[in-house]
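Friendly challenge for the regulars: who can give me the structure tokens for this chain first? No prize, just bragging rights.
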Amino acid sequence: MSLEEQPLTADRTFSFDELEILIHEEEYVYFDHTKLDYVQDPLGSSRFQLLKV
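First reply, four minutes later:
Bragging rights claimed.
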């Protein structure tokens, strides 16, 4: 995984309100049927989590 300045031609773009996520075509298989979820635990810690759906 890397951060890029500009989208590549093979990238897929997903927009959620003000957030835009780019996934390269070769990496898309890892994210297919996956949900990105923001979770918080009872102690106040929070993180993003990938869930298979």
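Residues 1 and 27 are 9 Å apart (CA to CA). The chain has one domain: 11-52. Your move, everyone else.
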